[in-house]
Amino acid sequence: MRLRANAKINLSLKILGKRPDGYHEIDSIMQSVSLCDYITLAPLESGIQLTTNNLRLTTDNRNLAYEAAEVFFSAKGQDFDELSRVGARVKGIKIYLEKNIPLAAGLAGGSTDAAAVLYGLNQLSAVGDRLSAFELQKLGAEIGSDVPFCLTGGNCTVTGRGEFVKSNPINVKRDFVLVVPEVEVSTKWAYEAWDSKQATGNRQLATQNDLEAVVIEKYPVIQKIKDRLIELGCSYAQMSGSGPSVFGIVNLNETGNTVYAQMKNEYPRTFLVRSADRGVEEG
C-alpha cells in the first residue's frame, strides 16, 4: 500500500494560554497542501521495520512513523508476535518513508507520516476489526498534537492542544508559494519564547500567527521572505506554525508560476503547492 502524507500549513494560529499539562491551548485554521511524503506499507511476519531515503531521520521509535505503528498494534492488543483483533492480514509491518517535506519547518512532516501509518494499518486490518475515525484520532493525539488534523485533512478548525478537529465547508482550491529557508525552528523553543514574552508583559503585535513575531525576532529571514512574496505579487504572506516555512497566497496560476520561479532562484527550498482535501490519500 502506497500513501500520500500531505503537509499542512496554519492559515491562522492563536495561542489561548498554557495548560496545566504543559501543552498550549490553541485555536488554529489548518489546511492540507499537496507537498507530501510517501509512505509504503507491506505486511511482515512480525515486528516493525522502518527505512527511509533521508539519512537524518531515525528508524526506531524516535521516528513518529515507527511510533504510530507501535501505538496502533498496542491499541489492538497485539505484541507483534501474536495475532489478536487485527486478524491474519497484519502481524507486523514494513514501512518505507520517502521524505519530501522539509524537517523542522512547521509543516507537520512527522505528524503526517504518523497519520499515514495509522490510516494504512487500519486499512490493512480485517474489515470487521478496523478502528473508527474517532478511535484513530484518539490514537493520533497520543503521538503528537498535529496528528489528529493530519488524519482528517482539508481545511479544519483545530482547538484544544490539537485533538479537537472540525472540518470547514470550504471547497475553493487555493495555490500557495511555500518557501522554507535554510534554518530549523524547534516547536518547543518557539512556544517557550512566546511564554516568555507573555510573562514579561512584552507582548508582540498581533498577527494571524501568534508565534510569528517571536520567531522572526530570532530568524529575520522569515520577515524578508514575507516581504519578498508580497513584492512579487502574493496577496498575503505568513509564517506557518512555528516556522520557518512561509507561504504566500497566489490568486492566479500565472502569478503563482512567476512568483515560484523567482523565489526558487533565491531560496532553493521553494514549492508551488495547492490546497488538498485530505491529509492522507491512497496512491
From TrEMBL:
One annotated GO biological process: terpenoid biosynthetic process
Family: Belongs to the GHMP kinase family. IspE subfamily.
Signal peptide: none
Residues annotated as catalytic: K8, D146
EC number: 2.7.1.148
Stated name of the protein: 4-diphosphocytidyl-2-C-methyl-D-erythritol kinase
Reported function: Catalyzes the phosphorylation of the position 2 hydroxy group of 4-diphosphocytidyl-2C-methyl-D-erythritol.
Any one Gene Ontology molecular-function term assigned to this protein's record: 4-(cytidine 5'-diphospho)-2-C-methyl-D-erythritol kinase activity
HAMAP family: IspE (MF_00061)
Binding site residues for ATP: P102, L103, A104, A105, G106, L107, A108, G109, G110, S111, T112
Catalytic activity: 4-CDP-2-C-methyl-D-erythritol + ATP = 4-CDP-2-C-methyl-D-erythritol 2-phosphate + ADP + H(+)
Pfam family, one: GHMP_kinases_N
UniProt keyword Nucleotide-binding present: yes
Gene3D superfamilies in alphabetical order: 3.30.230.10, GHMP kinase, C-terminal domain
Domain GHMP kinase N-terminal: 63-154
Organism: candidate division WOR-1 bacterium RIFCSPHIGHO2_01_FULL_53_15
Matches recorded under InterPro entries: GHMP_kinase_C_dom (IPR013750), GHMP_kinase_C_sf (IPR036554), GHMP_kinase_N_dom (IPR006204), IspE (IPR004424), Ribosomal_Su5_D2-typ_SF (IPR020568), Ribsml_uS5_D2-typ_fold_subgr (IPR014721)
Pathway(s) this gene product operates in, as recorded in its UniProt entry: Isoprenoid biosynthesis; isopentenyl diphosphate biosynthesis via DXP pathway; isopentenyl diphosphate from 1-deoxy-D-xylulose 5-phosphate: step 3/6
Keyword terms: ATP-binding, Isoprene biosynthesis, Kinase, Nucleotide-binding, Transferase
GHMP kinase C-terminal domain: residues covered: 204-268
